[in-house]
Design brief:
Length: 107
């Protein structure tokens, strides 16, 4: 399995069932507009987007782990949450910049 999506490169979970070695080296992003599903080797992450007002959206992110992993004594999903918190904030800032550019008259 490739290194986990974490701050130290290690996964605190197990590879999801039925993934081949090749599949475990990749992350797959599925867009179900406006939502997003990310398939990582050790978890599934969802982004649920809820429009609040013009130019304002609430985003709810969840990391989902196999039951046998999540119920394991001492399992701590924070390795994935901490990493994703940083990368999500960077992604959101980039998207906000693109949105501002789209709305700009170029002047």
């Amino acid at each position: 399995m490739r290194p986990g999506s974490s701050l130290d490169g290690r996964s605190g979970g197990d590879r999801l069932p039925r993934l081949t070695d090749e599949q475990a080296r990749h992350t797959l992003y599925l867009v179900l507009a406006p939502d997003l599903i990310t398939l990582e080797p050790d978890c599934v992450m969802t982004h649920r987007l809820v429009p609040l007002a013009h130019g304002e959206t609430f985003v709810e992110c969840s990391c989902l782990f196999p039951r046998e992993v999540a119920e394991r004594p001492g399992f701590d999903p924070s390795y994935a949450a901490a990493f994703r918190d940083i990368t999500n904030r960077q992604d959101f800032a980039a998207r906000e910049s693109v949105y501002r550019g789209i709305l700009s008259n170029g002047g």
